[in-house]
Specification:
The chain is of the alpha/beta class. The chain is built from 11 helices and 10 strands. The radius of gyration is 21 Å and the shape is globular. It binds ligand C2E and magnesium ion (3 copies). One magnesium ion (MG) binds next to loops. This is EAL domain-containing protein. It comes from Phormidium yuhuli AB48.
């Protein structure tokens, strides 16, 4: 009987695995068509200067309007893209789209050209030989100046290909493009790369920010946030706190002299129209 039971559960297991594999395969097929079918879109989340309360920049975040499953978040499809050759195409699409949007706002809506656009670059892009040319071409094509662009990379991508990343960073630096380290504090960081690589800012991962308040057990998160802010200051880098959700978290970060912040407290990521309204409103009233 035990043997029969074992066999039955084996079958259930197999069929579940099979279903998962089919779903994944279908997603990958859908993903391959998504760019040409124009199913991707960008949401924009404001990055706020905590001193002036004005918008300093916007982070472009991808969404997928799936034909049958509705609006999907990156966590639901980027892992599949990352396992294939799709990721680099997606990031390049995002970069072009974000630059086109920024340029349109600058031209039509007289957006201050101190406001930057930030996009995420996956580790896969650092394996492409021609990534710097692709990025430069997009700037030329869209007419966006390098100083208006910030690229977010993770500690992971730096650690995996240090020399390649270094040469890419240096080449793009010539065009005044800025770099930030995303989710800072969660990776296997080595302090030595921080001054060795020409990055401009650190984004404190939201897990630390959400841990600083209101829980009483949050002292170590507070210390981590504080340490990252001090580190950034010592290395003359800017620092952005990710995932600020409450006034309490914001006040603590202001006390710690954190320069920039991003999070639901200020705004969720917004579709382009709503992001423009937010920008206009904030630039008027601060
Ligand atoms: P990320 O770059 O660290 O982006 C911040 C994520 O935190 C976004 O999730 C944003 O919606 C979310 N967030 C912002 N403020 C808050 C807050 O106050 N509370 C909470 N709970 N969450 C907040 P999203 O849009 O789901 O993106 C998740 C991740 O997917 C991003 O993390 C980034 O790593 C990746 N991603 C998104 N778009 C792209 C893209 O175009 N290319 C690449 N390579 N990765 C992307
Ligand atoms: Mg990011
Ligand atoms: Mg992040
Ligand atoms: Mg994050």
């Amino acid at each position: 009987q035990a043997k029969a039971k074992g066999k039955a559960s084996q079958q259930i297991f197999d069929s579940r695995m099979y279903t998962q594999a089919i779903v994944r395969l279908q997603m990958e097929t859908d993903l391959r068509r998504a760019i040409e079918r124009r199913e991707f879109l960008l949401y924009y989340q404001p990055i706020i200067c905590l001193k002036t309360r004005k918008v300093s920049g916007l982070e472009a975040l991808i969404r997928w309007e799936h034909p049958s499953r509705g609006l999907l978040l990156p966590g639901e499809f980027l892992p599949i893209a990352q396992d294939s050759d799709l990721m680099s195409h997606i990031d390049i699409w995002v970069l072009r789209e974000a630059c086109l949007q920024l340029k349109a706002w600058q031209d039509k809506n007289k957006l201050d050209d101190a406001i930057f656009m930030s996009t995420n670059l996956s580790v896969h892009n650092f394996l492409q030989e021609d990534i710097t040319e692709k990025i430069s071409d997009i700037l030329v094509e869209t007419g966006v100046s390098g100083h208006c662009l910030e690229l977010e990379i993770t500690e992971d991508s730096i650690i995996r290909n240090p020399s390649q990343v270094n040469s890419i960073l240096n080449r793009l630096k010539h065009q005044n493009i800025k770099f930030s380290i995303d989710d800072f504090g969660t990776g296997y960081s080595s302090l030595s790369y921080l001054h060795q690589f020409s990055v401009d800012s650190l984004k404190i991962d939201r897990s630390f920010i959400q841990g600083i308040a209101p829980q009483p057990s949050s002292l170590s998160n507070l210390q981590i946030a504080n340490t990252i802010i001090q580190l950034a200051e010592n290395l003359q880098l800017s620092v952005i706190a990710e995932g600020i959700e409450t006034l309490e978290q914001l006040s603590i970060l202001e006390d710690l002299d954190c320069t920039y912040g991003q999070g639901y407290y200020f705004s969720r990521p917004l579709p382009a129209d709503a992001a423009l309204n937010f920008l206009t409103y904030c630039q008027q009233s601060g």
